[in-house]
């Protein structure tokens, strides 16, 4: 075994340290020449954004041993090499482990010797058996200090190189500088990033869960210290820093990054890919994948904070229905509650809410209420079970003195936060949700304010002065000099440890508890949307992008956030359509509906003080109602395709919404595009994002043999033209979101109906084939009952077109009702020869052929989707045309 392991590392005595400005690693306490040199660091002022005070080449750790064998890997022991200490508490001796998790997953763990440190309580899964071959190797350098490189074996590309120096392992300050394979880096969150590809000019992003509206570079609700890097040859890898403490990352022009955190250990996972979709698939396989949501969850959702009565809620609901807009889910924000108390409803203004929810269900629609985690302490004893039972079971987060921490959120009285890390808290949460369900038959749960958010700093009683509440270094996070702003004391205690360590996992733990509860209560696939998320939250919940602004640039930012969360393994994601904060305008709301219809999670939602913005309020024939109606009818038509993408993501890994470069990773222009996106490999969405515009340029990725089709007209375009000008005029009743379909794909679609229940009742599909330049195409559809928890009970059918023939393959047939689903209509675009005969399973079929658009339409009879079907066509003449 040792000989086998030795094949995957090498030693080197070559120093790779450079003193160029782009490769400096900042000596953080050095704010001027005197403080810098007193630390032993180098002071060289520069006019660039590079640090003036930086660490010398000899800073870091020296090797105490050669690499030695450990279980499933190798390790090496180190000792601190200099007396320089930026923030004290440095660990003198550490061990670096290289653990072979699978052939495409390497774990690198750096921790002090003989000292127990907090580690994130999430298990990262590798292969079931130790890998015998690896697609990576690691190279160790000893001079001037320890560093290592991770190399892709097949190409020799260096993926992760720590020779920039700066390695620090201290009690409350850990740092690692990394040279990247290229400057095409994507990820890290959650913030409102202005571009999907990172700015490498010394830009720093903080990560610490916080209740903050998306704005500037503030750290937001979730923490995802994960990135993807596209290598120069187009191969792609991903890297996770598994850490839940407050942290930051600085992008440098090297190209590189400097990662810093103030607790735990450095625990790094490198995913080899090599394609972008394989990277995401490996990442989600190691953490747990998001299940396909209930089918209805992909429909249109409507909410606002400020209905103030069930009558106003019903009015907005009715306006939407009257506008002819496909519509599935009505939501309730905190104003439905009795005095902001969880698991209650207002007995006066929302007295009829249970009856309204029943009415929704009768019409095939759903209801989702909000819940906040902080439980009021002010109700009379015995009158409010959530508090009384929580007290009896001792489930609360405790302050440093061991008493339940007292916070202030929406209820009038002070409140306690549950510690969702304990099983007894999960049981308590389940019981409260079950009791609530007996009153209101909700269909999903919206969990909010779970960073956790607090309206006072730390607690009502304040926080102690100690190293947890006042760490020696605070990463670049919002809230001034304090980590306590808008949340709870860092020395509060939970079952997993002090809040300092687990703060950013609060939403993760609540989502896990909610997921379990909904499974047991409803017996159906759970639907949950959470504001705060962490690494692995996609196993339990979807996400919306928070309290965005009713401003034009926020539409662009929402595309970036949606694509990032697909990278993070959370494909059910979207932003508040028309914006949450401020008053939208008619034009902005119309354009946002054209975009938001194609978010995987499509919800219109806004703020208490803002005007109504449901699409019907503008008038039944307003540009907003028309835009929403047109775009959502298209989205509903695509739901079989979109739902199949979620199944494929769950079964095989990968994204639902993805950037263009995922499919065209060697297209240099595509690497920087984030105003267009793909749904799966085939559907390209190119919304108009600018005020007053009716046209935009659409970039067509791919080579000269790549074909794109207008989704509405079936007009063909070659990617060789690269730029296509499109028009979407809100004053034209027929115009909608610019969509293009990639040649080579067959999409399962349905005729849109008023809601998904009505749409599914037809049990019919249509197939739209957009053939490539060789007149070939593939597609697939997953069918199930739309809500079952048993995710093996599906039927999976593939479609394959080759010149003159279309075949159907039933890959799995476990959904019993699939035998009743049929295909009503098939359209194949891109057939260049006149067709004079079509046969289905050897029998003549009804068809038409349009030679101008090269479209073959087939009208089968009793064409059941699970049959052993084959379609052939022949031509009597040929008149080849170029796309």
What would you note in describing this structure?
- With 883 residues, the chain is α+β, with helices and mostly antiparallel strands.
- It has three domains: 273 residues, Immunoglobulin-like; 252 residues, TIM Barrel, CATH 3.20.20.80; 209 residues, Immunoglobulin-like (Sandwich).
- Helices cover 17% and strands 27% of the residues.
- The protein has an eleven-stranded mixed β-sheet with strand order 50-49-53-46-45-44-42-43-47-52-51.
- The longest helix is centred in the middle third of the chain and has 17 residues.
- The termini are far apart.
- The N terminus and C terminus are likely disordered.
Q: How helix-rich are the residues, as a percent range?
A: 10-25%
Main pleated-sheet profile: 11 strands, mixed
In whole angstroms, the N-to-C terminal distance is: 57 Å
CATH C-level class of the largest domain: Mainly Beta
By helix and strand content, what is the structural category? alpha+beta
What is the oligomeric state here? single chain
CATH superfamily of the largest domain: glycosyl hydrolase (family 31)
Indicate the radius of gyration in whole angstroms. Answer: 28 Å
The figure for the number of domains is: 3
List the helices and strands and how they pair.
Elements: H1 2-6, E1 9-12, H2 33-39, E2 42-43, E3 53-54, E4 61-63, E5 68-70, E6 73-80, E7 93-102, E8 105-112, E9 136-141, E10 147-152, E11 158-161, E12 168-170, E13 173-179, E14 185-189, E15 204-207, E16 224-230, E17 236-241, E18 247-252, E19 256-261, E20 266-271, H3 276-287, E21 300-302, H4 310-322, E22 329-332, H5 353-362, E23 366-371, E24 375-376, H6 385-393, E25 415-416, H7 423-437, E26 445-447, E27 493-494, E28 497-498, H8 499-502, H9 506-522, E29 528-530, E30 542-544, H10 552-567, E31 573-574, E32 576-577, H11 586-596, E33 602-604, H12 623-637, H13 639-652, E34 657-658, E35 677-679, E36 683-685, E37 695-699, E38 707-710, E39 716-718, E40 723-727, E41 739-742, E42 745-749, H14 756-761, E43 764-770, E44 777-783, E45 795-802, E46 805-813, E47 822-829, E48 833-834, E49 837-840, E50 843-844, E51 846-850, E52 855-859, E53 870-874, E54 877-878
Parallel strand pairs: 1-9, 21-22, 21-33, 22-23, 23-26, 26-29, 29-30, 30-31, 32-33, 42-44, 43-47
Antiparallel strand pairs: 2-3, 4-6, 5-6, 6-7, 7-8, 8-20, 9-10, 10-11, 12-13, 13-19, 14-16, 15-18, 16-17, 17-20, 18-19, 24-25, 27-28, 34-35, 35-36, 36-41, 37-40, 38-39, 38-41, 42-43, 44-45, 45-46, 46-53, 47-52, 48-54, 49-50, 49-53, 51-52
